[in-house]
Amino acid sequence: MKTNFIPRAEGNSITHKQFEKQIPLFLEDRLANRALEAFLRHLDSCGSCQDELSIQFLVFAGMPKLETGETFNLQKELDAYIQTERGRLRRREHLGAAAFILEVITLAAMVMAAVTGIMLFM
Ligand SMILES: [Zn+2]
What we know:
mainly alpha; binds zinc ion; 4 helices
C-alpha cells in the first residue's frame, strides 16, 4: 500500500534496533498507536527489517505449525497480518478522532451550561 502523507517530526521515526526490539510486540498486537504507526512506516521503507520480521514471524507463527504438520504460506500470512494491523491502526485513529470530537462537544455543553447558569443569576 502506498501512502503519500507528509513525513512528521523525526521523533516519530524509529531505528533498526528499535524496530527489531518491537517485532515481538508487533506480532502479539501489543504496540500502542504511535509505536505501531512508526513500526509500520519503518517496515515500508526498510528491506533488511522486512527480512528480520519475516524470520521472527517464522519463529513466532511458523514453528508451532511445523510441529502440527499444517501447511502454510508464511509470506502470505505475514502480509495478511500486516494488513490487519494497518487496518486496526486506521480504525484506532478514527476512534481517537471520534473520542476527541465527543470531548469537545461535552466541553462545549459544559461551557454552555455554565454560561446559562451565570446568566440566570444576573
Ligand atoms: Zn530497518
